[in-house]
Amino acid sequence: MSEPEKHEFGRPNLIGAVDQGTSSTRFLIFNAGTAEVVTYHQIEVKHILPKEGWVEEDPMEILESVKICIDKATENLIGLGFKSSDIKALGITNQRETTIVWDRLTGKPLYNAIVWLDVRTAATVQQLIKKTPGQNKDYLRAICGLPIITYFSAVKLRWLLDNSELVRKATEDGRCMFGTVDTWLLWNLTGGTNGGDHVTDVTNASRTMLMSLSTLDWDDKLC
């Protein structure tokens, strides 16, 4: 292992990365100077398959898997002679289209995470396409760059509003929060119900079918 790059006070510069994927979660710690992996920890995440074509995950299990991986990788790091404070920055990469809704007051999920490859929204997609001029699935490409298909978060959110009384009621009461996996993790890791940040970035927002590629902001027509 090469010697990590050091800042002006003589301590090494390390970067942590949460990699929350469809089948597993990892937390990796990198040498900032060489991009070499210093240590990591990885655990599997279970799929929930309630019906054919439906793929869900437990948002609380996703969150807990991230916390465990961070703790275990940090323990490994300390065992190698480093300090946790040597980690100077943290990034998140994740399964992007997977959709989570939760109660902003309790912090509890309102439904299981609907995974990107879930196809329960097929009927919702057809209904949306029928409302476009010429029944064109590519009608929104000029705005968001995406076709109207089951993949993306917006149609999953529409399905939840149409099919979950809990989600619908929480939305009416102003308690429902929506996000991709990065948003769920960031909200919880920055305080959750005690002022957690409800944020994302363009790489995730661009897969929701709600962001304009020209403004890099939520589009009123799509939202």
Automatic annotation (TrEMBL):
Pathway: Polyol metabolism; glycerol degradation via glycerol kinase pathway; sn-glycerol 3-phosphate from glycerol: step 1/1. One of its GO terms (cellular component) is mitochondrion. The keyword Transferase applies. InterPro entries: ATPase_NBD, Carb_kinase_FGGY_CS, FGGY_N. The keyword Repeat does not apply. It is an enzyme of class 2 (transferase). One of its GO terms (molecular function) is ATP binding. Residues 15-223 form the Carbohydrate kinase FGGY N-terminal domain. Belongs to the FGGY kinase family. This is Probable glycerol kinase. It comes from Arion vulgaris. The lineage of its organism: Eukaryota, Metazoa, Spiralia, Lophotrochozoa, Mollusca.
